[in-house]
């Protein structure tokens, strides 16, 4: 199941449901999104500028992006960060040589704002618009 999933939108209820039913979540926008107001909710600040993610990254000699990706991987979420930049693609894959502690995982989980970056409000009046549902 592919859904938006990142430290500001951790999807705990959906993740638990999926775990109980042997469904793997594939998280899109695991690093946040571009800041294009025409389709992105700008209520939340840029994910990769979050002070906690930056601080945890410094502790592990990693970037905030690598911490955000590692957080979801440790939770069993498959991440699909988008990039056309070869160096960034390599950087995004360098998350398997460290682990977040239980305390760090809890702290990152605490960043959850239950706010989507990708709302697609231009379709919100469509009868099958999915984001009105609890999941």
TrEMBL record:
Top-level division of the source organism's lineage: Eukaryota
GO molecular-function term, one example from the UniProt record: oxidoreductase activity
InterPro entries named in the record: AKR, NAD(P)_OxRdtase_dom_sf, NADP_OxRdtase_dom
Sequence intervals crossing the membrane: none
Domain NADP-dependent oxidoreductase: 2-112
SUPFAM superfamilies in UniProt: NAD(P)-linked oxidoreductase
Pfam family, one: Aldo_ket_red
Protein name per UniProt: NADP-dependent oxidoreductase domain-containing protein
Organism: Conger conger (Conger eel)
Lineage: Eukaryota, Metazoa, Chordata, Craniata, Vertebrata
């Amino acid at each position: 199941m592919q859904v938006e999933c990142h430290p500001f939108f951790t999807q705990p209820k959906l993740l638990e449901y999926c775990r109980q039913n042997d469904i793997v979540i594939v998280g899109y926008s695991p690093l946040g999104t571009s800041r294009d107001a025409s389709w992105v909710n700008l209520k939340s600040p840029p994910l990769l500028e979050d002070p906690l993610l930056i601080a945890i990254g410094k502790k592990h000699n990693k970037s905030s992006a690598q911490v955000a990706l590692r957080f979801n991987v440790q939770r069993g979420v498959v991440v699909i960060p988008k990039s056309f930049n070869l160096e960034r693609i390599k950087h995004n894959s360098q998350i398997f040589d460290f682990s977040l502690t239980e305390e760090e995982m809890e702290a990152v989980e605490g960043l959850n704002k239950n706010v989507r970056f990708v709302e697609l409000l231009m379709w919100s009046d469509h009868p099958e618009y999915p984001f009105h549902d609890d999941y």
